[in-house]
Amino acid sequence: MQSGDIERLDRILLNRLQQSFPLVSEPFRELAEEFRMESQDVIQRIKHLKARRILRQISAIFNTGALGYRSSLIAVAVPEEAIERAAKAVNAYPGVSHNYLRPAPFNMWFTIAVPPWENMETVVKNLVREAGDFPFLILPALKKYKLAMVLDMVEESEGDGLSDSRSDVTFTVSQEKSFPLTPAHIEIVRCIQEDLPVVDKPFKYWADKLNLEEENLLETLREWIRNGIIRRFAAILNHREAGFTANGMVVWMCPEDRIDDAGIKLAKFPEVSHCYYRPAYPQWPYNLYAMIHGKTIERCREIAQLLAKVIEIPEYEVLFSVREFKKVRLKLFWD
């Protein structure tokens, strides 16, 4: 599906929902006033976009580090004949949310989040041992410059330049200070990480399930956003269904004294959804990572080339996903 197949008003609405969702008693009414339409029209449009699998869900997007989780990107060098068994073993762990086949030498790349009661290194070693005991790298984010999977549904130009960041929302990466969780907090987390019901008063629906007052739940959400526990409360799209069928992980060998400058520059562009500084290894010397999204592989290559010019590091690799072994929303506090 191409984003041009989606009505323009729906695309504008999707852009708005990806940035933030109104944390008020009747959010769809507030959106309707903003778009000068009836609230039921907004509700029907959202239901239609969900039915088409363009809009995956509207929910809290957490800063997992603030909740005590440790996360990392893992790269494994798996022989071709063992890839199916290895992927199955890795995917069995609930904290693995994404797992892709990419070009060798390190060809299996997965993201993992480990809860406070488990040890990251131990979990990864055990998973790789079960997968076949292959060479692997643990690549945690030493610094995060951007975490914002926000697809520009309105800009249709496929010109030679990069688009400027048009959003009024600045996606800053907060410090991951641990937040002392109570059992009541954990129940709220488990609830609000799910898809928001598309009803007139969705937060009241959740509050009733949690045995809370609606305003108390809303104020908790606002406070957690202010404190960086929730990165944002917003819509998440199925990027392929939204027309962004290509993506690549671009990696650079960046001098340490230039890493912050380069990371900040890369984070400014909406084509970049994630940007990290990660450790380098002798067998894998790359330390600056940027995930880019486009409507074609050719467009992704153009974006990577232009980003390389922006940060003035001409040598880079674009690791396209050859196959998707797993892609799900991470569910926190599964145990």
Would you report the number of β strands? 12
The residue-averaged pLDDT reads: 90
Report the principal-axis shape: globular
Gap between N and C termini: 37 Å
User: Helix and strand succession?
Assistant: HHHEEHEEHEEHHHEEHEEHEE
Task: State the secondary-structure class.
Answer: alpha+beta
Number of helices: 10
**Radius of gyration from the alpha-carbon trace, in angstroms:** 20 Å
Lay out the secondary structure:
Elements: H1 8-19, H2 27-35, H3 39-51, E1 55-62, E2 70-76, H4 83-91, E3 96-101, E4 108-114, H5 120-131, E5 136-139, E6 143-147, H6 183-192, H7 202-210, H8 214-226, E7 230-237, E8 246-252, H9 259-267, E9 272-277, E10 288-294, H10 297-311, E11 316-320, E12 323-327
Antiparallel strand pairs: 1-7, 2-4, 2-5, 3-4, 3-12, 6-9, 8-10, 8-11, 9-10
Helix pairs in contact: 2-3, 4-5, 7-8
